[in-house]
Amino acid sequence: MDFGLNFNQLSRSEKLQMYISNMTPVLDKKALFSDGTKMFRNPPEPEAGDEVTIKLRAARENVDVVYLIWNGQRMVMDRFKNNRRFDYYERTVTVGNDKVEYYFEITSGRKTFYYNKIGVLTEKNKFYNFSIMPGFKTPDWAKGAVMYQIYTDRFCSGDVSNNVVDHEYNYIGEHVSEVTDWNKYPAAMGVREFYGGDIKGIMSKLDYLEDLGVEVIYLNPMFVSPSNHKYDIQDYDNIDPHFGVIVKDGGEPLAPDDFDNKHATKYITRVASQENLDATNALFAEFVQKAHDRGIRVILDGVFNHCGSFNKWLDRERIYEGQEGYEAGAYISKESPYHTFFKFPQGNWPYNGQYYGWWGHDTLPKLNYEESQKLHDYIMQIARKWVSPPYNVDGWRLDVAADLGFSNEYNHKFWRDFRNSVKEANPDALILAEHYGDPYGWLQGNEWDTVMNYDAFMEPLTWFLTGVEKHSDEYRGDLLGNHEAFFGSMNHHMSRFNTQSLQVAMNELSNHDHSRFLTRTNRKVGRTGSVGPEAANENINKGVLKEAVVIQMTWPGAPTIYYGDEAGVCGWTDPDNRRTYPWGHEDMELINVHKELIKIHKDYNALKTGSIIFLGGGPMYLSYGRFDEEDKFVIAINNHNDHLTMNINTWELGIEDTDRLVRLILTTEDGHDLSAETYHSENGVLKLTLPAYSGVIIKTVEEY
Question: How far is 545 from 599, CA to CA, in rounded Å?
Answer without folding.
Answer: 18
